Amino acid sequence: MTRSQLRLLLASVVAALALVVSACGGDDSDSGSSGSSGGGNAAQQETGAGKTGGVLKQLGGTDVDYLDPGHTYFTAGYQFAYATHRPLYSFKPDDAKDPVPDLAADKPQVSEDLKSVTVKIKPGVKFGPPVNREVTSKDVKYAFERFFSVNVGGQYPTYFSSIAGAPKTPTKGVKPISGIQTPDDQTIVFNLSRPEGVLISSALVMPITAPVPEEYAKEFDAKNPSTYNTHVVATGPYMVKNDAKGTLTGYQAGKSIELVRNPNWDKSTDYKPAYLDGIQATTNDSNASVAAQQVLTGSHLSLDANPPAAQLRDAVTNRKGQFVQLPGGGFRYFPLNTTIKPLDDVNVRRAIVAAFDRDAALKARGGKFTGDIPTHFLPPGIPGFEEAGGMAGPGFDFLKNPRGDMAVAAEYMKKAGFASGKYEGNEELLLVTGNVDPIKSQAEVAKAQLEKLGFKIQFRTVPQDAMYTEWCQVPKKQVAICGGAGWFKDFTDPQSMLDPTFKGANIFKEGGNNNLAQLDDPKIDAAMTKAAQLQGAERPKAWAEIDRMITEQAPAVPFDWDKTTIIWSKDVNGVGNPYYDALDFTFTSFK
Amino acid sequence: MGTYIIRRLLYMVVVLLFVTALTFLIFYVLPSADPAALRAGRSPSPETLAAIREQLGLDKPLYEQFWLYVKGLVLHFDLGNSFVNNADVRELVLDRLPNTLFLISGAALPWFFTGALVGTISAIKRGSLLDRAAMGSALLAISAPVYFTGLVALYLFASDIGLFPLLPGAGSYQQADGFFAKIPTLILPWIILAAAFAAIYARLTRSNLLEVMSEDYVRTARAKGVKERRVIIRHGLRAAITPVVTVLGLDLGILVGGAILTETVFGIPGIGRLSFDAIERGDLATIQGTTLFLALAVVIMNLLVDILYAFLDPRVRY
Fold it and tell me: Which contacts (CB < 8 Å, 24+ apart) does range A159-162 have?
């Protein structure tokens, strides 16, 4: 099946996506997901021939979440996962829209009724030491089954919930999944309970698809939590240094990760050049400014994440060839709860957006080098972005001035019945945010912006993890404004950006709700349902129109289309991967 | 003395139990990050959270959770599991401990002796230019926080980014292989850490010594014709230094629990850095573990100091 055929199928089934997508609420260590271009220079990267050899040192202030491909879901983890594992499909650094076969031999075959997906895997791909045998389809099957176990704790099960027999809640121990079949060693078939073949085939880029050898891993997976994280076996060009028993001697939690070449990796089976001989990553570096300075002025070094403002400015303005900017493929926003008075009035919401100094909110996150100020919701790199007006947006007056326009705001307040042009009521609006920067700082900006329009704000900071799960995602908590919200894609599809976040049908009253503004507009819902069935060029157009409809309703204040800047030393040919927004070890080389 | 030590050990157990209960209350009862949410990752469904709560035993009554925690702690020195690092907290702490001990032991000797010496000279030369210069410098060193002086030192003297590249800089400790190779990488951190503490000790020694030197027994000693040097050392300094040793004991205990700023600025993977990372990432189990370890270190050092008292001050007998 060709890629275009896949896209046609995608249109007919992706409606179901909205019901299952839940995994990409953004925080400050977002998962491996982004667009391809449009906010940085990712598409112009030199990914051609490089010098083979050498050891790159990556300085970093934070550790990976997990090395276990079945558990990782954050950028740092993805960076190492895609260098050490071979998922069925993955993205080349210069194209984050169309994945290419990695462990898979070819594109996935989706059945006519969209209820089964068949993938052939390449022969000759071997596990690294100490397993040292050829990968079979059963290893991918086991990777899926363990993912659903509570011991492993796979973090995006909803994407795969349509697989027949997929557990609805985490299982105790690893249980077989009846819907995954392996008729032979090179074939894996996903039988689905719903016609979501295209969704599943799109999701086969995720680390869950990296093979795991059952005979080796089951001993670790039997423990609670699984200890496979410190015994991971590689299939990719690199492996975390280990001993004869498979214990990762190259991983010291919170300190360092050492990657060496995987002796069993066969270049003829992979598209990755893997120039480097190894990678030594420190994950507890000193002050971020010091580390960034060391990278920019030193040699053989790279930084794991955005540098601080001074070094970022230095890199962007003075050090051509020592950085790449990768679009984040998402938006950060302040949702305005449309069920709470007076935010239930569209003119009040438009007034808030109009008055809001979004530039100040972006500055709280690092300013123009860390993101662009949105004019609508669909971010750069997502199909439909250009159709929705690109960077200029649909042209609503309340989004025209990124620094806020009190005159426009006053007009909307008057339309809402407030003759003074400011809010005159006494109700307090609850604004909840995380207790760490930058989300705390950006929320403080939001508080000031709302107060200048006359609103009284009850400002509450909570632990970052609790902000979503115990406040913003729980409608009964009556959070009026969520101060640290963001939404980032796991797939390149406009529906995955707008459907979970703004569709009325997706409001979950009991918790886990991602429609934080609780926007419930029948016209928008109907348009989404219709657009989900569209295909080809019509699809981005339709979603662009939905984007315009949502923006017009002002359900949130969008203030940041994220971008990540990766820096490296002058003797490094750095290549960033826009899928996971980090340096791609498998394409980076030395000059 | 034996009875005293046993009594103090029992007292130590009570203190540690109290700290354990307090940290447990802070992390489990008061509003904080949900360990189940930490384990579950982003945007988990309520069902997933419930399953993980059951897995972690968080659905059990609080008293039962506390009992299990104390039992694990007492029987196995089990400090829990870090869901952020996916590692045993005890192993993390023990892995980081040698680095912290290396850092503070190298800094403690110079800060104590320099502080005592400067403080003594200042007290003897009270009001002189030397006294004013020494105490002024000490005030400056106390006022400048370690994260500031550390960064200034790095930008001035670190071999990679410094204006005068003289000494290994941030992150070099971790890169160096072996005990002797690590020594040069610690020179800057030792100087910075020692400078801050030496300043405090100098002021403390000076004020104590001035107070002691006005005591009747010092006057008596002088009246008896004892040489001034002997008066200062045998009668003055010996008494004046005792409170300084108490502070040293507490400081060492606190630093064993983590020289957070120094370790963070210089990229030394010690207990302080572990605590810093844990706080930054909301890793409650590690914060709890390092807090308990800090309490343990402080009470042990306190006990050692009390025992040392008997040798330093002849008036003290247990």
Answer: A159/A20, A159/A21, A159/A23, A159/A199, A159/A200, A159/A203, A159/A206, A159/A490, A160/A200, A160/A203, A160/A208, A161/A20, A162/A16, A162/A20, A162/A192, A162/A193, A162/A194, A162/A196, A162/A199, A162/A200
pTM, 2 dp: 0.81
Sole residue written with tokens 């945010």: A433
* Contact list, A157 vs chain B (CB under 8 Å): 48
Question: Which domains, and CATH codes, for chain B?
Answer: 2-89 (no CATH), 91-312 (1.10.3720.10)
By C-alpha distance, which of B261, B263, B314, B312 is closest to B96? B263
> Per residue in A280-302, is it b (16+ CB within 10 Å) or e — as a string?
bbbbbbbbbbbbbbbbbebebbb
ipTM surpasses 0.95: no
Chain A segment 490-519 residues within 8 A of B by beta carbon are 510-512, 514
CA distance A34 to A563: 9
- Cβ neighbors of B150 (< 8 A, separation 6 or more) are B188, B189, B192, B261, B262, B265, B266
Give the separation between CA B239 and CA B251, rounded to whole angstroms: 20
CA atoms of A330 and A25, how far apart (whole Å): 10
Residue B122 is which amino acid? S
Q: What is the residue whose two structure tokens read 């794991």? A: A304
Query: Angle of helix A346-355 relative to helix A439-452, nearest 10 degrees?
Result: 110
How many beta carbons lie within 10 A of that of residue A53, not counting itself? 11
Query: A396 in helix, strand or coil?
Result: coil
How many A/B residue pairs have CB atoms within 8 Å? 157
Tokens 């303005």 belong to residue: A317
Question: What residues in B contact A330, CB-CB < 8 Å?
Answer: none
**What residues of chain B lie within 8 A of the CB of A31, using their CB?**
42
Burial class of B76 by CB neighbour count within 10 A (0 to 12, 13 to 18, 19+): exposed
Q: Tell me the one-letter amino acid at A431.
A: L
Please tell me chain B's helix, strand, coil percentages from 3-state DSSP, rounded to the nearest 5: 75, 0, 20
Tens-level pLDDT at each residue, chain A (591 residues): 333 333 333 333 333 333 333 334 454 444 333 333 333 466 567 666 688 999 999 998 778 889 999 999 888 899 999 999 999 999 999 887 788 999 999 999 999 888 999 999 999 999 999 999 999 999 999 999 999 998 898 888 878 988 999 998 888 899 999 999 999 999 999 999 988 887 788 889 999 999 999 999 999 999 888 999 999 999 999 999 999 999 999 999 888 999 999 999 999 999 999 999 999 999 877 678 899 999 999 999 999 988 887 888 899 889 989 999 988 889 999 999 999 999 999 999 999 999 999 999 999 988 888 899 999 999 988 889 999 999 999 999 999 999 999 999 999 999 999 999 999 998 899 999 988 778 899 999 999 999 999 999 999 998 766 788 778 988 999 999 999 999 987 777 788 889 889 999 888 887 778 899 999 999 999 999 888 777 668 889 999 999 999 999 999 999 999 888 999 999 999 999 988 889 999 999 999
Beta-strand ranges (E) seen in A153-224 are 180-184, 187-191
Please measure the distance between the N-terminal and C-terminal CA atoms of chain A and give it in whole angstroms.
Answer: 40
Q: What does the alpha-carbon distance between residue B254 and residue B301 come to, in Å, rounded to a whole number?
A: 9
Residue B45, chain A, CB below 8 Å: the answer is yes
Residue A326 phi, psi (nearest 5):
-115, 130
User: How is residue A51 annotated by DSSP?
Assistant: B
Question: SS3 of A70, please?
Answer: coil
Residues 6+ apart with CB under 8 A from B108: B194, B197, B248, B252, B255
Q: What six digits make up the tokens of B109? A: 């000797």
A255·B277 Cβ contact <8 A? no
Cα separation, B224 vs A415, whole angstroms: 96
Q: Which of residues 198-257 of B touch A (CB under 8 A)?
A: none
